Automatic annotation (TrEMBL):
Keywords: Amino-acid biosynthesis, Aminotransferase, Arginine biosynthesis, Cytoplasm, Pyridoxal phosphate, Transferase. Transmembrane segments: none annotated. This is Acetylornithine aminotransferase. It catalyses: N(2)-acetyl-L-ornithine + 2-oxoglutarate = N-acetyl-L-glutamate 5-semialdehyde + L-glutamate.
Length: 395
């Protein structure tokens, strides 16, 4: 009998390698595969499912919006679209303008084009960065293995070591259009820069008339315990007001929606005809995002993100085979004594937990904000046996 994996391999492009599971349904922070086996989802669709799976509020918002008005073109406006833009700006606490997209890469494409409207072309980016897979966002992504097969990429991108303010100072000059950084590097394995880094980046960019662009595709929408990570006093010292912020992932809680937000004057750099999208910010996507924002506010999920994050970090750090735990809130990176993260992912799956390997010795946890204490405790209890089964040796 042909399996789903065989049918997948025969019908889908092999961009992701063989799927680890064929999933059938989800509820809260739990998913079930086609054979009915249950897993605690500690990855949340890679930091996307902020409200977990099948959250009643999200389901109702999408259902109601689709029954009312599902899609219109951007020749027309919709109430959810405008309301969402206002809410995202209110969370930033500043005036600005929003361009909605369907993904993080598209939000970054929009922002990349926006930087060109300064009349300058150079973008200074951090090594270890991940900004997406389209040609523009790939040009801003540092990993050679992703870039090389597709070169030449759009140019005038300069890479500097992440978290190094002196390197930024040396690289940024009056020809720089923008400095682009992630407040925490997610794909690199949850790498946290010094607390002074973002404020330094802001000062350096502004000293040269350049824009500060923060990619909060992974860190935004509450993931670190504040709505935007650059507002998190645990991560950032001083006040940072980025000129551009890009969002996606958690924003729609699983419905594809992203945003390129530009504050102050940079919000007015695009003129009619400069950029566009058919689907970006459609009423259903915007209604989904509003449901996520409402749930975060009304169910006090940011406080839960902080509590759950602490519980998880303390729990996994208790095993001596974990050499470092990084991150705040529910964006957590773990380093192992040995490069066995792929084995740990497999062993965790066997034990009923979904986790993610970012590098051979690094794991990432980015679970839904609706994870329960019992879910965390179950994972922490299973953790030593998972490491045993993966063959990670005690130091
Ligand atoms: C920081 C960051 N930017 C951009 C992207 C790309 O987003 P998408 O996969 O939605 O295009 C990602 C995805 O992992 C990301 O983590």
């Amino acid at each position: 009998m042909t399996t789903w994996n065989e049918r997948y391999a025969a019908s889908l492009m092999n961009t992701f390698g063989p799927p680890k599971l064929v999933l059938a349904r989800g509820e809260g922070a739990h998913v079930w595969d086609v054979d009915g086996r249950e897993y605690v989802d500690l990855l949340g669709g890679i930091a996307v499912n902020a409200l977990g799976h099948a959250h009643p509020r999200l389901v109702a918002a999408v259902d109601e919006q689709l029954r009312t008005l599902g899609h219109i073109s951007n020749f027309f406006a919709s109430v959810p679209q405008v309301t969402l833009a206002e809410r995202l700006l209110a969370e930033l606490g500043t005036d600005g303008r929003v361009f909605f997209t369907n993904s993080g890469a598209e939000a970054n494409e929009a922002a990349f084009k926006l930087t060109r409207r300064t009349g300058r072309t150079r973008v200074v980016v951090a090594e270890g960065s991940f900004h997406g897979r389209t040609m523009g966002s790939l040009a801003l992504t540092s990993k050679q293995a992703y870039r090389e097969p597709f070169e030449p990429l759009p140019g005038d991108v300069v890479f500097v070591p992440y978290g190094d303010s002196a390197a930024l100072e040396a690289a940024v000059d009056d020809s720089t259009a923008a400095v682009l950084v992630e407040p925490v590097q997610g794909e690199a394995g949850v790498v946290v820069p010094p607390a002074s880094y973002l404020a330094d980046a802001q000062r350096i960019a502004h000293d040269h008339g350049a824009l500060l662009w923060l990619d909060e595709v992974q860190t935004g929408v509450g993931r670190t315990g504040t709505f935007y990570a650059h507002q998190n006093p645990e991560l950032v010292s001083g006040t940072v007001v980025p000129d551009i912020v890009t969002l996606a992932k958690g924003l729609g809680g699983g419905i594809p929606v992203g945003a390129c937000i530009a504050t102050g004057g940079s919000g007015k750099l695009f003129d009619p005809g400069n950029h566009g999208t058919t689907f970006g910010g459609n009423p259903v996507a915007a209604a989904a995002a509003l449901a996520v924002l409402d749930a975060i506010a009304e169910d006090k999920l940011l406080a839960r993100v902080v509590e759950l994050g602490e519980r998880l970090r303390i729990g996994v750090a208790a095993d001596p085979r974990v050499t470092e735990v990084r991150g705040t809130g529910l964006l957590i990176g773990l380093d192992l004594v040995e490069p066995k993260s792929a084995d740990v992912v497999a062993a965790a799956q066997d034990a009923g937990f979904i986790v993610n390997a970012t590098t051979p010795d690094r794991l990432r946890l980015a679970p839904p904000y609706v994870l329960t204490d019992a879910d965390v405790d179950a994972f922490v209890a299973a953790w030593p046996a998972i490491l045993d089964q993966a063959g990670v040796q005690r130091p």
